[in-house]
Each structure stands twice: as structure tokens, then as C-alpha cells.
């Protein structure tokens, strides 16, 4: 991480499309919701979920899962570093932005809950990310090289989530109930994944259709029920990409940014 | 970008960069792993190296970069820049036959090859690097590093790492 902090450079000369000014990027919601940088949206998804998964360190049900979740977090962190570097200084973006300047989906900021809850979040998100990166990899845009690489990593995340969904859903009465609870609780955050992000060039309808088919197939094989409620809450529809986040996100950020804010420039 | 055949010096420097051991799997060289994509001499003493990560988040990439810089500095190159490139994406098929042999010898089951053309073969079983049995089972999809899965041999009961196909 050797990039010069954006504040020290006169003007960003990097050829990044539709980059908001450094001040706007760090401080607040985009004045025009359509102006969300796609690199920031995808980078924040990866960064925030990586941090949530890292919170399992020392708490996972078994050692193998502790290692698995940390490895998935590491893959996501690597993707986040590439994506955020397209926008500006990766450290500054991760550690100095306020809550309203983050563009991640509300799904990825949801607290871990129990292990089944985390697996439900993983199933929803990894299925989305596999399809999204698959589409980006087959295009010729600026994200194609990263997507072509990341889609192979994410395929393992999806496989991990699917196998656990099957095992918990088709397991004991308690694991079945907890897995269903996790799927139900997070369902209302899934609609935001299919909102178009300007500049990404994604076929959102195909994304939704592929996602629904894939998740439905796994959930049914796991003897679980696909949640029936709306995929967005009335007041939260698509709000994460516009910088509106749920209440637990502020506490997560406070912890994630604490060291850097208390000891600026700390390294080891 | 002008692409020309590598000069004798470039071939020599590529071999040198490729002989650097992998920081996490020192039994392999970066050349065995297939991560050094090219070396170009821009001016006398000034060289540009292209390195590709195995996984996007591979934390070893920084150690690899400084190890390559040191190796080329020691060879008289005063200005070495190592650039990370993502495309084309690295695949386990880039690991050399020699690399696969060393992995197995080290106790890590090497990745299987992706079929490139022709009929799709039956999924090959993963062989225990200790006793050679093909009767092995998956314990966890992620092991000590993101690039490995944890398996156990049903015959000799030893756990072992398997370098996952990517």
C-alpha cells in the first residue's frame, strides 16, 4: 500500500470513470444516486463482508470453519483492495470514510448472528457475486480482469455456502429451524442486489432470474422453504448503494476504523 | 506495446526471478508456480517484472515482490519494478510438472488438470500423498491457506492438504 493519500495530491489524474471528488467520497452520500462509482459499490461489498467474516475468528463452531471463514474473508479483502485502488487510496477509503459514504449492500453489513445466519448471508451473497462476476468477466469493461480471476475464487465460497445450507437444512430439527430463520431474516435485504448500478453494464433481470433459480434449488434440496415476503423493506429499498445503512453498520465501522483513527498511519 | 522476443539477458533474469522460492511453500519456486509472467529490460540496469497472484487476496505477493527485487538487485540490476498483473488470470494449470512432483513429495496433493479439449474425463480422485491411496475424503474446503483444501486418507488415516484446482 504505497499510494499517496488523496489529500496530498493536487487532482486525481487517474483515468477512473465518474470518480466523485475526494471530499465527497470520504464524507457523504452521493448527491446524485446514479453517480455511485461501481468500483466503490463492489469494493465496499467485499470489504464489509470480509470484516464481518473476520469477526468469526475465535468464535466459529469448529476449527475448520474458523479457517474456512477467514480464507473467504481474505479472498474478499483481496478483491476489495483491487477495487478500492481504482477509486483512490485503499487505506484512506477503508479507514477514513464516514458511514454515509459507504456504498455496500445492506445485506453484507448485517451482523453474523448464529452460524446458520452467517451461512444464509453467504448463500445469498456468494450466489449473487458468482453471477455478477461471471457477467463482468465475459464483458470487456474495466472490471473484466478482476472478475475473471475472482469468479473462480467465489465459486468456492458458493460451494461452501451451499454445502452448509444442505447440511444444516437437512440436519437436526434445531439446525433446520435455525437455517430457516437465517434465510427468512435476511430475505428482505436481497432485493437490493438487483438494482442497477450505473456504469456496471449488468443485465439485472438475468442476474435476478439466475440467482432465484440457484437459491431456490439449494433451499429446496435442503428441505427448507424459500422465504415468501418482499425482497426489500418499504423504507430501505436499495438504500445501501446510496449510503443509507442499517443501525449495526455504524458499530461495525467504529471497530474496523478504531485502530487507524487512534494511531494514524500505524503499521506492523 | 511492442512485443519482441526476450533477449538473452531477459531470459537469464526470468530464470533468476523464477528461481526465487515461494514464501509460503518454499519447496516450490515462483517458476514452478507459474506466477512470473515476464521480465523486460527497459534500459541498462533497469528492469520491469510482471507477477500475477495465485488468489486475488494472496498475502504472499508482497514477500514475492521484495524477494524478486532482492534477487535481481544482487544480479546488478539497480532499478527493479515488480508489477502485479491480474490478466490472464492464474490457474493451477500454470503449475509446472516439476512443481506438481515437488508438491506431492512435500505431502500436498497437487491440483488436477483442467481438461482443455476432447472428452471430459471422469473426475479423478485425489491421491493421498503419504500412502498413495485414492480413497480420500474432504474435511474442509479451505485449509491452512485459501489455495488448499483439507482432506483425510481413509486408508492410512493421515490428514493432508490438497492444492485446489483454480
Automatic annotation (TrEMBL), chain B:
InterPro entries in alphabetical order: Fe-S_Maturation_MIP18, FSCA_dom_sf, MIP18-like, PaaD-like, Zn_ribbon_PaaD
Every MIP18 family-like domain range: 15-82
Residue ranges annotated for the PaaD zinc beta ribbon domain, each copy included: 124-164
Classification via PANTHER family: 1,2-PHENYLACETYL-COA EPOXIDASE, SUBUNIT D-RELATED (PTHR42831:SF3), FE-S PROTEIN MATURATION AUXILIARY FACTOR YITW (PTHR42831)
Protein name, entry field: 1,2-phenylacetyl-CoA epoxidase subunit PaaD
Annotated source species: Streptomyces huasconensis
Gene expressing this chain: paaD
Amino acid at each position: 500500500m504505497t499510494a499517496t493519500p488523496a489529500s496530498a495530491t493536487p487532482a486525481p489524474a487517474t483515468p477512473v470513470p465518474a470518480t466523485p471528488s475526494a471530499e465527497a467520497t470520504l464524507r457523504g452520500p452521493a448527491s446524485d444516486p446514479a453517480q455511485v462509482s461501481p468500483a466503490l459499490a463492489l469494493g465496499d461489498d467485499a470489504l464489509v463482508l470480509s470484516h464481518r467474516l473476520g469477526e468469526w475468528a475465535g468464535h466459529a463452531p469448529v476449527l475448520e470453519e474458523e479457517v474456512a471463514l477467514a480464507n473467504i474473508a481474505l479472498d474478499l479483502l483481496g478483491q476489495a483492495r483491487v477495487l478500492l485502488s481504482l477509486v483512490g487510496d485503499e487505506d484512506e477509503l477503508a479507514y477514513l470514510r464516514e458511514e454515509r459514504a459507504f456504498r455496500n449492500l445492506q445485506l453484507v453489513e448485517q451482523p453474523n448472528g448464529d452460524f446458520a445466519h452467517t451461512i444464509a448471508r453467504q448463500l445469498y451473497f456468494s450466489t449473487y457475486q458468482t453471477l455478477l462476476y461471471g457477467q463482468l468477466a465475459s464483458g470487456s469493461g474495466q472490471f473484466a480482469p478482476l472478475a475473471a480471476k475472482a469468479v473462480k475464487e467465489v465459486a468456492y465460497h458458493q460451494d461452501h455456502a451451499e454445502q452448509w445450507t444442505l447440511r444444516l437444512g437437512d440436519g437436526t430439527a434445531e439446525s433446520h429451524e435455525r437455517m430457516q430463520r437465517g434465510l427468512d431474516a435476511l430475505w428482505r435485504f436481497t432485493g437490493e442486489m438487483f438494482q442497477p448500478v450505473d456504469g456496471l453494464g449488468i443485465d439485472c433481470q438475468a442476474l435476478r432470474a439466475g440467482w432465484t433459480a440457484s437459491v431456490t434449488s439449494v433451499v429446496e434440496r435442503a428441505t427448507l422453504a424459500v422465504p415468501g415476503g418482499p425482497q426489500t423493506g418499504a423504507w430501505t429499498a436499495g438504500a445501501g448503494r446510496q449510503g443509507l445503512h442499517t443501525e449495526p453498520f455504524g458499530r461495525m465501522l467504529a471497530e474496523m476504523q478504531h485502530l487507524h483513527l487512534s494511531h494514524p498511519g500505524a503499521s506492523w | 506495446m511492442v512485443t519482441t522476443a526476450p533477449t538473452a539477458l531477459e531470459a537469464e533474469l526470468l530464470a533468476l526471478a523464477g528461481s526465487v522460492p515461494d514464501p509460503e511453500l518454499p519447496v516450490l519456486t515462483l517458476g514452478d508456480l507459474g506466477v512470473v509472467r515476464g521480465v523486460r529490460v527497459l534500459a541498462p540496469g533497469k528492469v520491469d517484472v510482471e507477477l500475477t497472484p495465485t488468489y486475488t487476496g494472496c498475502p504472499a505477493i508482497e514477500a514475492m515482490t521484495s524477494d524478486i527485487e532482492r534477487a535481481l538487485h544482487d544480479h546488478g540490476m539497480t532499478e527493479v519494478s515488480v508489477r502485479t498483473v491480474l490478466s490472464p488470470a492464474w490457474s493451477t494449470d500454470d503449475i509446472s510438472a516439476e512443481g506438481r512432483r515437488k508438491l506431492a513429495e512435500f505431502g500436498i496433493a497437487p491440483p488436477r488438470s483442467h481438461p482443455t479439449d476432447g472428452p471430459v474425463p471422469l473426475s479423478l480422485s485425489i491421491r493421498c500423498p503419504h500412502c498413495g491411496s485414492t480413497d480420500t475424503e474432504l474435511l474442509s474446503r479451505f485449509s491452512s491457506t485459501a489455495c488448499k483444501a483439507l482432506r483425510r486418507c481413509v486408508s492410512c488415516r493421515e490428514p493432508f492438504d490438497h492444492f485446489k484446482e483454480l
